[in-house]
Design brief:
Elements (H helix, E strand, L loop, with lengths): L1 E15 L5 E6 L5 E6 L3 E4 L3 E5 L5 E6 L3 H10 L5
Antiparallel strand pairs: 1-2, 1-3, 1-6, 4-5, 5-6
């Protein structure tokens, strides 16, 4: 199952340092981009970010366009959440 979203800036979490702090990389994009996202990769959704799992044990916080409620309705309409 997939959903279409428009993503903006994102944060890649590469892992943790020896003190247990996240090692992250902020990525700024000049123009929002349409993306087809696998629902199975979604870990959580907030009003600002969609947290997804990625390759090599990484996680990505995607900033997205639109509202939390619109995204929630898209997932409900597709019968992907209750």
């Amino acid at each position: 199952m997939f959903i279409e979203i428009v993503t903006k800036d994102f944060i890649i979490v590469h892992g943790y340092d020896e003190d247990g702090k996240e090692v992250s990389e902020d990525v700024k994009v000049p123009v929002p981009t349409k993306k087809i996202m696998a629902v199975s990769r979604i870990q959580s959704i907030t009003e600002k970010y969609i947290l997804t799992s990625s390759s090599h044990g990484r996680f990505i916080y995607w900033e997205y366009e639109g509202t939390y409620d619109a995204l929630l309705n898209q997932l409900k309409t597709a019968a992907l959440i209750i």
